[in-house]
Amino acid sequence: MPVITEFLHVKTEGNTDIINITNAIEAIIKKHEIKEGMMAVSVIGSTASITNIEYEPGLLLDFPEMLEKIAPSNIVYNHDKKWHDANGYAHLRASLLGNSKNYGIYNNELQIGMWQQIILVDFDNKPRVRKVVLQVVM
Amino acid sequence: MPVITEFLHVKTEGNTDIINITNAIEAIIKKHEIKEGMMAVSVIGSTASITNIEYEPGLLLDFPEMLEKIAPSNIVYNHDKKWHDANGYAHLRASLLGNSKNYGIYNNELQIGMWQQIILVDFDNKPRVRKVVLQVVM
Amino acid sequence: MPVITEFLHVKTEGNTDIINITNAIEAIIKKHEIKEGMMAVSVIGSTASITNIEYEPGLLLDFPEMLEKIAPSNIVYNHDKKWHDANGYAHLRASLLGNSKNYGIYNNELQIGMWQQIILVDFDNKPRVRKVVLQVVM
């Protein structure tokens, strides 16, 4: 079997909480002694996304502010009128940003930049425990 | 050969038509009896995307409305001035949302949430038959 | 080892420079005589993205204009106040569009449309040499 599957269970505060999962991913690469591999990182659910950012305090404010302009949290969406869970904006942001990203592993190292971290973004309007799927083909 | 390739041919109405392809994907997983695998889903073409959504009537209105604000369909873009096909907005939305997503398969099950469906979104301004590429490494 | 890893080093002008990397990718597919495979294309760094577009002059104007509305380059972001590198907008665009995409290879051919090209977009505010990671499982 050339495919490795691992799961991360990540506690979030919701409300566009941005969690740096880079270290957890690098620990798995080390644990399995992966020299070269294609990795996919995906999150389960329709109100969360995986993407990258330079994980520093400025962008942790700027990124949610940009998303607030694209899909404001104070609009009553058709989704909210029907289901009354007030998280229509969370669904829209997750559909826009997507559930998954790919990263290379080469020479035992995750192929990301010095200022590039892999993040889980939880858009839902309450704390959640998110399940992230890590798969590597090696 | 550890890679399986399958194609879906999906009829759409265009105009940001949102098609739920989750059942078709799960049928392929079952057909090949895939226990564990890394899956990539991509769509061929420059005016369509693959993403996820909770496939319910409210969000099927909200998601196109959000995209209408980001890349309005009633603007004459530089693309339209040159090619006169009036689908500049469709290209922009497809480039923004992307052609592909990854999903895990584990314990014979697609690793998505209860309210998370995989969708093909066709932004072009006319009905099309779209070719979706499904690949699994197992 | 069923995974092939190759790197492209791409010179860019920055400032949302859009580089067509399709030919370089197809040359690698040909070099390795890949008949069938799952490909992931990712870029290293937090101010660049991989996506698709019909690579024609109209859209090369329209796509940056759309992104200028979403994350304007003339705003002083929190990131810029802290780090004084004036590229906050570049980070935001990269986080939104993502670092990676998947493409299928089948019958020795990259599974993309006639008007669909794979692009590297460099959002940073200066010329860079970008490292693109190409991986194929075959």
Q: Biggest sheet of chain A, open or closed, and with what strands and sense?
A: 5 strands, antiparallel
Percent strand of chain A: 35-45%
Tally of DSSP helical segments of chain A: 4
Report mean pLDDT of chain A, rounded to a whole number.
Answer: 97
Which strand order does the major sheet of chain A show?
1-8-3-5-6
Structural class of chain A: alpha+beta
Q: Quaternary state, please? A: homotrimer
Largest interface: A-B, 35 and 35 residues
Shape of chain A: elongated
Helix percentage range of chain A:
25-40%
End-to-end CA span of chain A: 9 Å
Radius of gyration of chain A: 16 Å
Q: Could you explain how this protein is built, in words?
A:
The structure is a homotrimer of 138-residue chains. Chain A has 138 residues and is of the alpha+beta class. The first copy, chain A, is 29% helix and 38% strand. In chain A, the strands form 2 sheets. Chain A has a 5-stranded antiparallel β-sheet, with helices on one face. Chain A is elongated. In chain A, 51% of the residues are buried. Chain A binds chain B through residues 1-3, 5, 38, 40-42, 44-46, 70-71, 77-83, 88, 91-92, 94-96, 98-102, 131, 133, 135, 137, and chain B through 2, 36-38, 40, 51-54, 56-59, 61-63, 66, 69-70, 96-98, 101-104, 106, 111-113, 115-117, 137-138.
Short key terms for the protein model shown above:
homotrimer, alpha+beta, five-stranded antiparallel β-sheet, three-stranded antiparallel β-sheet, 29% helix
